[in-house]
Structure formats: C-alpha cells, structure tokens
Amino acid sequence: GIPGKKCGVIILSAEELSNCRDIATMQLCANKLDKKDFFGKSDPFLVFYRSNEDGTFTICHKTEVVKNTLNPVWQAFTIPVRALCNGDYDRTVKVDVYDWDRDGSHDFIGEFTTSYRELSRGQNQFNVYEVRERTRGRGRGEGGGGVTLLSFKVESEYTFVDFIRGGITHVCICDVYLHAAGSPSQPSSLHYMSPYQMNAYGMALKAVGEVIQDYDSDKLFPAYGFGAKLPPNGNVSHAFPLSGDSVNPNCVGIEGVLQAYFESLRTVTLYGPTNFAPVINQVANCAAEITDGSQYFVLLMITDGVISDMLQTKEAVVNAASLPMSIIIVGVGPAEFDAMEELDGDEVRVSFKGREAERDIVQFVPFRDYIDRTGNQVLSMARLAKDVLAEIPDQILSFMKTRGIEPRPGLSCSPLPDLPGHI
C-alpha cells in the first residue's frame, strides 16, 4: 500500500486434499527449554508444519503461548489429519519451538521432525523429541531441551450428509395463526386467500418446505396451527392439527401441508393470544423420547412477529436445546421482529432464569428481506430457503458430536439433493 515501496511477497500454494476424514487430538509438553529472555524465563509455543509435495513446508497449527516457563504443558488441540499430512502417514511433520515476544520478533529455540505414523503410537519413548537449533552444515545443532507427546487420539469426523444418509431428519411444520393477521377473507390479512396469488404464509411455507422435505426420510409432516377457535364448540387451541385429525396429524409432502393449511382457514376462527411455548414443548416431548441419534426434529414456525408468552417460550427453547431438535422461524408481514431476533441466539445465547441454552437451536429470518423487487419470485424464494437452512447442518452435528453419536448406515444409494447454505 506504499507507492514505490515493496511491502513483501505473498506465495499461494495449492495441493489436492485427500478424502481422509480423521481428526487427531494431541497434547504435548516440554522440559528444560533454552532460556531466551534476559529477565525471567521463556514464553514458549509450538508451530506445526506440513511438508508439501515440492519439499516446502506450510504452517498447519500454532499452540497457545505458555508464559514464563522452561517446562510448559500446552493444551490439547484437535487438527484434521489431512491438514497435518494430507493422508500420507509417513510424510514429514516439522515442529518449531519459539519463545514469544511482544513485538512479534519471536526467538527461535529449536526444532524437531516427526510424522503422523510416529505420533499415532501415542505416549512412549519414541515420541520424546530432542529440540535442536538449525545448522548450515551437516552437523547437528545445539540442544534446546525436549518435547514429549503426552496423549494422541484419532476420531472420524462425520459430516451432515453422513447423518442424512442414515435417515435421521424428522420435520414438523407449524403454521402460526394469529388473531392480528386478520380474517382470511380480507385483502389486508396475511392469510388472505386470493384467487390470483399465494399469500405470504403459503409462499414462505412452500419456499422453505420444498427444500427441507428432501431431508425427511418418510415425507410425512405433522402440521399444526395455533391461536384459533376450533369447530364445533369454539374451543381455543394453541396446537391443533391442520388436518383436523388429532390421532394422525401427518400431511403427505409440503403440498399436503399447504392443502391442509388452506382447508383449515375455511373452518377455524383466528383468535389470540399467540403462545409459542405449547407447540415447542409438544415437539420437544417427541424429541425427548428419541435421543439416541436415530431421529432429529426440525420445527418450522411461520409468524407475523406477535408473541404473548415470551418468558415461557424462552424456557421452552432452553429446555429444547439439549434435545435433538432445531427451530426455524420465518417472520412474515411488516411488524417488528425484536422478539424473534432475541430467540435467535447468534449474538447472545437464549437464557431463562440464569440458565443458558446448551446450543443455539433457533434460526430466524424475516420474509420481507427476500422479496425480489424485480419480481423474480423463484430467485427470492431460493435465497430465503438457503439462509433459513444455513445453520441446520452445524446444529445437527453439534448435538451428535457432544453425545458421541455416529451416523447409521445409509438407507439407500439414491443421490442427495444439494443443501442450500453450507454442509
């Protein structure tokens, strides 16, 4: 950025990665390292390098700095095996030992070399390394202490697709009926049943549902509405099946959910208050019965932003965070969605009476942000689906990993659809 002055060179190297999915967790310590600081001892840290096909080395990991000691014990760290050696177990791994300095001019203490195969032997006499300084000739440099491998463990790193192949996803659709949304017969209502175009609720449901249904193994979706008076007695319900069948609330595919939604608008009377907690708890009760990793529940909620039981809803979300369950909330209409943003734990994790949610399981997106001004409805709905589902893979993986659950064998060899967002 300085005209007329060379500021350095950036070298970009590329190598095709192996398909090795293993991840290694290791911990190291050192003893009697050279003292590099005039006052005090050293502040040592390790730098790991993977050797490349052309003989060069690339940094693949740095440990933390342990202050003022010649006998540091570094924290255990995890690294993909492909990052350490790209699947070649005998490829050289070089480790440099440095003394940290505040100005960045870290003092070199020494180095040693090893390999993944050697490290995988774990703690033994072969994994005690003498740290040596570099020499220009063929002779060995002066010793600078020793580094010892304390522990080494290898695990398989499973992906979202591995779990989906095992048929784990179970999707529950919840259409949020709101008294504030107005009568479906009025054009001003978000539930207005126009003969010319689908209402906002239907558009959001179709856009997200058509993508997420491909990750449900049986394509049967229990679909509920709440905030309505039900025939024939006008009883108020906050979790009623859209199909009208309390014994079997399932709808076949998203088209079946849409049909049940439009049919229910003709028979129920929209009514407040709008309570979220009952339906979240209902799905959570189902998820609590199956915590072995064989199923994972995704609750899709569509709302205009009004919520009457925020405190109870926070409690329900905190409780559900420890279960195999995620919640997707799509906000429709012009209202402010402050309450929905609060439930989405991207910035601040949801808590109830001082108890924080174990995981962030809520993803919220406002529907209005995805209305394409050029009228390209297909593009805008694709963008909506992508952002809505972006966090689901990591949420599923986080639950499975913390509980040591491995994916089941694939149910079929049919190709999987592309997942919007990331995998």
UniProtKB/TrEMBL annotation:
Which Gene Ontology cellular-component terms appear in the entry?
plasma membrane
One example of the protein's molecular function in GO is: metal ion binding
Q: Which family does it belong to?
A: Belongs to the copine family.
> What taxonomic ancestry is recorded?
Eukaryota, Metazoa, Chordata, Craniata, Vertebrata
Q: Which SMART domains match?
A: C2
Name the record gives this protein: Copine family member IX
* Lineage: superkingdom: Eukaryota
One of the protein's GO biological processes: cellular response to calcium ion
Organism equals Gadus morhua (Atlantic cod)
List each copy of the C2 domain by range: 1-129
Annotated PROSITE patterns = C2 (PS50004)
Spell out the InterPro entries in the cross-references.
C2_dom, C2_domain_sf, C2B_Copine, Copine, Copine_C, vWFA_dom_sf
